[in-house]
Amino acid sequence: MTPSAFSTFAALLKSRSGLVIGPDKTYLLETRLAPILKREKLNDLTALAERLTKPGADNLARDVVEAMTTNESFFFRDDKPFTHFRTQALPRLLANRPANAAIRIWSAAASSGQEAYSLAMILADAKAQLAGRTVEIIGTDIARDQLNRAREGLYTQFEVQRGLPVQMLVKHFRKEDSNWRLSDTIRSMVRFKEFNLLSDPRTLGRFDVVFCRNVLIYFDPPTKARVLDGIAAQMPADGALYLGGAETVLGITGRFAPLQGERGVYGLTPARAAA
Amino acid sequence: MTRTCLVVDDSRVVRKVARRILEAHGFAVAEAEDGQKALDACRLGLPDCVLLDWNMPVMDGITFLHHLRQEFGPEKPPVVFCTTENDLSHIELAIAAGAQEYIMKPFDDEILSGKLSQVGL
Ligand SMILES: C[S@@+](CC[C@H](N)C(=O)[O-])C[C@H]1O[C@@H](n2cnc3c(N)ncnc32)[C@H](O)[C@@H]1O
Questions:
Q1: How many Å lie between the centroid of ligand 1 and the Cα of residue A70?
Q2: Are B115 and A161 inside 8 Å of each other by CB?
Q3: Backbone phi, then psi, for A274, in 5-degree steps?
Q4: What is the A220 CA–ligand 1 centroid distance (Å)?
Q5: Is A165's CB within 8 Å of B107's CB?
Q6: A40, A175, A243, B46: least CB-packed within 10 angstroms?
Q7: CB A213 less than 6 A from any atom of ligand 1
Q8: Domain with B21 in it: what CATH number?
Q9: Where, residue-wise, is CATH 1.10.155.10 in chain A?
Q10: CA distance B98 to B65
Q11: Fold of domain A80-274
């Protein structure tokens, strides 16, 4: 691939999804874009880069962006954030809010849905505590193929064994051939929607709880700051933000601060909470 | 103290694979090739956990589990089934008999170590 072809990909990915790739990631372009080369009957990445600079390449550009996303996810990933949500954040929100106020939860890089559905299973099991209160879970992602998978709620045997306690499997899944399908009850609790984290989150409304995990790692610091500040602006003073194990707000934005004694859970800094 | 795991499987290959993973996670591993031998081993001293196949000669996994719970109480040691039986009815039977977790073969390091940490090890 020519250096200018590489620059074309790097600029496209950065501007459309925030993904930053260095020249050391050429192999990633090669492996992940190979299916597109084949489909478009193009010889190499240089040819694809050329095609992308021509007018009318918008759909192709979307496909490239989507193909370059890393979509790995699993149920109850890292366990701790979900335990914190169940035992700390949720009871606190329920106590703080009038009984008729809905609670809104955002899985901001939902991928194939495991994160949003893990939250839905927790809420289904906490039904008594909720006492009829409405809880909305929105899962968003930039990758349409992943969103379709998420809506299907169909997971392989391997996927349902990563992080998912067997009691939850028995309770909320049914076997379909060699795969496992989430129950309609759990699926109906989550709404999946296409949304690019680089765009304005005000269109999604306010969120009491945001899981934005294992996506900021791919962005540069100014982009991280922009996304985090956008989330902060949509959050009430007692909201909670959950980041991935390798992600932090420290040195990125002053609008969030780690909750005391917790790793990966953040609250708004008092002075700056959204009015 | 080193945690111990009793691997019960009639396949030598499976026992070897499980042993390799478990040892890498710091477990001391004992092996048994059927439920009866596993029960004999438990009577001499309980391991911290049991990794249990379903279909085995002499005594199968679910029969072993019934005996184990009857003799040693409902919770300890935690038992993780590890079997090619992968339908809901088998899983429900295993849970009803007192298994804490369930692995559907094939498994790998991530699944095995993940399930063991889910049962508190
Ligand atoms: C590694 S997955 C994380 C899934 C889940 N949050 C978890 O922690 O298991 C990252 C997801 O972020 C999505 N993503 C990447 N850039 C994005 C953007 N600019 N807007 C929305 N989603 C994006 C990818 O499509 C991918 O599904």
A1: 7
A2: yes
A3: -60, 140
A4: 15
A5: no
A6: A40
A7: yes
A8: 3.40.50.2300
A9: 3-68
A10: 7
A11: Rossmann fold (3.40.50)
Residue-wise pLDDT tens digits, A153-192: 999 999 999 999 999 999 999 999 999 999 999 999 999 9
Q: How far is CA B22 from CA A101, A144, B45, in A?
A: 48, 39, 19
Q: pLDDT digits over B55-77, tens only?
A: 999 999 999 999 999 999 999 99
Sign of the torsion angle spanned by Cα atoms A258, A259, A264, A269: negative
3-state secondary structure of B101: strand
Check B104 against A157: CB less than 8 A apart: yes
- Confirm if B22 and B5 have CB atoms less than 8 A apart: yes
- The residue in chain A having the minimum alpha-carbon distance to the alpha carbon of residue B102 is A166
Residues B83 and B105: beta-carbon distance below 8 Å: yes
Burial class of residue B98 (count of CB atoms within 10 Å of its CB; 0-12, 13-18, 19+): middle
Is B88 contained in some domain? yes
CA A37 to chain centre: 27
d(CA A147, CA A151): 6
> Quick check: helix, strand or coil at residue A25?
helix
pTM of the model: 0.95
Neighbours of A41 (CB within 10 A): 7
- Using a CB–CB cutoff of 8 Å, tell me whether B82 touches chain A: no
Q: What is the full DSSP assignment across A20-72?
A: ---GGGHHHHHHHHHHHHHHTT-SSHHHHHHHHHSTT-HHHHHHHHHHT----
Q: Is the ipTM of this complex over 0.90?
A: yes
Instruction: Please say whether the beta carbons of A50 and A5 come within 8 A.
Output: yes
Is B84 near chain A, with CB under 8 Å? no
Return the structure tokens found at A176: 């379909």
